[in-house]
Specification:
Elements: E1 2-8, H1 18-22, E2 28-31, E3 34-37, E4 58-64, H2 70-79, E5 112-117, H3 120-123, H4 127-132, E6 136-140, H5 150-159, E7 164-170, H6 176-189, E8 195-200, E9 206-207
Helix pairs in contact: 5-6
C-alpha cells in the first residue's frame, strides 16, 4: 500500500539516538552509529521522531510500505523486545582490558578515550550508545586488577594525540582510584587533555557532581 512513512538521511544523522528514544513504536534503532528505520510496519507515520532530531535528518515520504501493524507493536512492547533494543555493538577496538592494550596501538591516535570501571557497563543499561559510541574503550578495575595503571596510561597519552577522556566509575569508594589514576596519568604525560568523570549508581542512575 502507498502510505506516509518516515525516511532518514544518513548523511545528516549524527547518531545521537534521540529519534529512537522518541519513537514509541520501536520502529527506529541505531545501526553502526546511525539511526535506521528497522521495521516499516512499526512506523505509524505520525512522526513523533521528527521534532526529536536536532539535525533535521528525518522527513516524511509517500511510498509503498507495509501497513502499520498496531497489534505487532503492542505485542513487542508487552514482551519488551522492540526492534530498537536490538542494536549493534558500538565497540571500535579490541582488546579493551587496559592491562592488555599496547600504548602505541593505532586506534588511540586522535581518539576520544573512554576509561570504564568494569561494573559500569553492567549497571547502566544503554552503555554502548551513551558512552562507548564514537570512543576508544578501555576497561579496568582499580581494586581487582592489582596494577597501578598510571604509567601505562601516561604512555598512551604521551605517544598519541588523545582528544578527550571520559571516565565512568561506580559510587563505591574503590572506584575513586580509577579517577585518581587517570588524573595522575594526564599530569605525568605533560598534556592538557579534557577529562569528564561520570559516576553511576548500582541501579543505573547517573549521579550529578556535588
Amino acid at each position: 500500500m502507498i502510505r506516509r512513512i518516515i525516511t532518514i538521511d544518513k548523511e545528516k544523522c549524527n547518531g545521537c539516538g534521540l529519534c529512537a528514544k522518541a519513537c514509541h513504536e520501536g520502529a527506529i534503532g541505531m545501526v553502526n552509529g546511525k539511526a535506521k528505520l528497522l521495521r516499516e510496519d512499526y512506523c505509524d507515520g505520525l512522526g513523533d521522531c521528527l521534532p526529536a532530531c536536532p539535525m533535521h535528518a528525518i522527513s516524511f515520504e509517500e511510498r509503498e510500505a507495509p501497513a502499520y501493524d498496531e497489534a505487532a507493536v503492542l505485542a513487542a512492547k508487552k514482551s519488551k523486545e522492540t526492534p530498537a533494543q536490538f542494536v549493534e555493538t558500538q565497540l571500535r577496538n579490541f582488546p579493551v582490558q587496559l592491562k592488555l592494550v599496547a600504548p602505541n596501538a593505532p586506534y588511540f591516535n586522535g581518539a576520544d578515550l573512554l576509561i570504564a570501571a568494569d561494573c559500569t557497563a553492567y549497571a547502566y543499561g544503554n552503555f554502548h550508545n551513551d558512552f562507548i559510541q564514537g570512543k576508544v574503550t578501555l576497561i579496568a578495575c582499580p581494586k581487582l586488577d592489582g596494577v597501578d595503571y598510571t604509567g601505562k596510561l601516561a604512555d598512551i597519552l604521551e605517544y598519541n594525540d588523545v582528544k578527550s577522556i571520559t571516565v565512568t566509575r561506580m559510587t563505591v569508594p574503590c572506584c575513586g582510584g580509577l579517577s585518581y589514576t587517570v588524573k595522575n596519568a594526564i599530569e605525568q604525560s605533560g598534556k592538557n587533555i579534557p577529562l569528564h568523570v561520570v559516576t553511576i549508581s548500582p541501579n543505573g542512575t547517573i549521579l550529578q557532581p556535588v
